[in-house]
Amino acid sequence: MMTFMVVALLAQGADSVQDELRRIVRTQYIKQLPSGQVDSITPESIHALDEHSEWLPPDMAEFERAISDGEEPFGFAFERRGQGHPTITSLSSSGILYKCGIAMGDQVIAINGIPIATTKALKKTLLRYQHRPFTITIRRGEVDYDVDVDPDGQRATNVVGMLYDTVAYINIIRCAEGISERSYRLISRFQRQGAKRYIIDLRGNPGGYLHEGIAFCELFSRVGDTIILQRFGNGDVRVFTAERDGPFVGMTIDIMVDVKTASCSELIALVGQDRGWARVVGSVTYGKGVMQSIDNLSDGSMLSITSAEYRSRRNVSIDNELGTGGIDPDVRRRWIRYHQHLRENGASLVITPNQLADLRKNHPNPSRSVIDSLLAAYGLDASTSNIVMLSVFTWARLGMVWEAM
Q1: For position 179, which CATH number holds?
Q2: How many domains does the chain have?
Q3: End of a domain among 297, 329, 361?
Q4: CA separation for the pair 363, 194 (Å, rounded)
Q5: Own/partner long-range contacts of 43-52 (Cβ < 8 Å, ≥24 apart)
């Protein structure tokens, strides 16, 4: 989800939440709707407008705000694939799920024995367990595991990074509040430590705040550079330009993407590719080139409604419906899950959540020998690519290997 404004609406007179919803749809929605359709809108029917618009009741709205602001303990992004269970697409090494041995690609089957069949059910259940222990059942490959989780006041950061030799790796889980400042601090630190190459991992990043994506792009832009065009339903266009020279003007980075790189994270990759300060590596991205405005309603609920689209400075849209359908990377790579890789290559190594938790605890910054041993166990050639090693040794990306298309 990409959001670009937060508006607190106070009820006026006898206005109901339904009146608020209709007023917002009438004035902000990206398409002009017939009056009769607007007048019939209810909270429950908002999602029928398009796949990105939704209304959240007060308790779910509170949890969504915590996720967007980086104030929740879990530190992960997820999605539902087809009719399957919710699947974890991205993990922060500062989150409690990472520390408990959860991995990319794990499916969430149940929490405390309660089956989880939708992403909404997962959010609603996690809301109840932000501050108390619970057991999450995940499916890794063909095997189910019960993992005990105790949030215990932890808070996850949405940006994590490490330096390996002269290669700096930064993983942005979602484009939440503060990710541009956190990225700036990490890149600056790695510069001082002698980094020569910079890899920004946006795989599985579902998006977030527009202003954070723009602020990240400004780090690499010259004053006056056009970053993006924002086009509203009434035809108005807003142009975002860099207000000053960024601290990393002239630096070239690699941006890792996949089919779950969406919305604001796609914006970062699009601008970097278009302006030439980034080489995009991976597969074609999700293709979400529209934005949602977020309105906090008078009863504590939240309305997220599609209100604009974004385009490159060359007026190119990457939206599935309005444009090219995702970003075509400069270097194509196919990312596969480690259990799929093992099956395809006849290997027998399976890392359980407990084993993975121990690896992460005992080797937060693993040595070259540890990395080489793990790669050898997977049957991977350690000299193939720095990015192959980084995909494995950061543990948050454990189980994600790549091969040429």
Answers
A1: 3.90.226.10
A2: 2
A3: 329
A4: 22
A5: 43/17, 43/18, 43/301, 46/21, 46/303, 46/305, 49/25, 49/305, 49/306, 50/306, 52/1, 52/288, 52/290, 52/292, 52/304, 52/306
**What is the span of the domain harbouring residue 233?**
159-329
Give the pLDDT mean for 10-35.
78
pTM greater than the 0.85 cutoff? no
> Can you tell me the distance from the alpha carbon of 159 to that of 175, in angstroms, rounded to the nearest whole number?
9
Query: Do 247 and 374 fall within a single domain?
Result: no
| Residue 370: pLDDT band with limits 50, 70, 90 | low
pLDDT tens digits, residue range 343-362? 555 544 566 788 778 777 77
User: How does 225-261 read in b/e, with b if 16+ C-beta sit within 10 Å?
Assistant: bbbbbbbeeeeeeeebebeeebebeeeebbbbbbbbb
In a domain, 122, yes or no: no
- Over residues 44-71, the mean pLDDT reads 83
294: in domain? yes
Q: Are residues 325 and 339 in the same domain?
A: no
Higher pLDDT: 311 or 11? It is 311
